[in-house]
Amino acid sequence: MKDFEQENDNAYLPLRDVVFQTIRKSILTGELKPGERLMELHLADKLGVSRTPIREAIRMLELEGLVTMIPRRGAEVAQITEKNLREVLEVRSALDALAVELACERITQEELDSLKRACDHFAEETRQGDANRVARADVALHDIILAASRNDRLVQMIGNVSQQMYRYRLEYVKDEKHYEQLITEHRKIYEAIRDRDKEGGARAIRLHIDNQEKAVIRMISGQKNKQG
């Protein structure tokens, strides 16, 4: 949230929405941790705004499921739960499979070349030791596939769930033992699209997302066991 002043460069956005986007980004990138309390006065001081847009932004974040209201405690960042994870990834798996199938039909050679470079770039980022950079490289790769679908409604639908998925993806890529598997999965998705193999591409993307779900569920279960 330290970059609030730089990010507030759209004079046409209501202040409430700018504050909402700023806090939302901090939650999705892990700057604000699951279970962390959102103190209105502290956030207002930090962002240099009144408490009113903070309060409005928190209500919007609650509607998105990113913030939970706790009796006698107030607002806190929602925990990453197995139920929420499954719901987000069930939707994303179906939509991504459709995106891959459409990309197999519609992708251009230029986009294929970009997708190949994105696979290589992701592999390079895994060697840098920065989970946020790895997550961004993963998002960029998937965005190329989505754009190649040539379906604006699908782009919009995936956009509605992709940012919520970001914090699950971030938890997944924090563990470096997954990197080789991710690189292999990306390569298989690329090869299927290159070969116009719709069935193989859909299967590869579903496996890719299913593996993320299983890994994050193991992480959630491990955290519960530690707390217990």
Main β sheet profile: 2 strands, antiparallel
In terms of DSSP E residues, the strand content is: under 5%
Output the number of helix runs: 10
The whole-number mean of residue pLDDT values reads 90
Helix/strand/pairing category: mainly alpha
Task: Give the total of beta strands.
Answer: 2
First-residue to last-residue Cα separation: 32 Å
Shape: globular
Helix content: over 70%
Order of helix and strand elements from N to C terminus: HHHHEEHHHHHH
Strand order of the largest sheet: 1-2
- Would you identify the regions where 5 or more consecutive residues have pLDDT less than 50? none
Radius of gyration from CA coordinates? 19 Å
Structural notes for this entry:
By secondary structure, this protein is mainly alpha-helical. The protein has 10 helices and 2 strands; from the N terminus they run ααααββαααααα. A hairpin with a 3-residue loop joins β1 and β2. α2 (15-28) packs across α4, α5 packs parallel to α9 (179-194) and α7 (131-148) runs antiparallel to α8. The two termini are 32 Å apart. The mean pLDDT is 90.
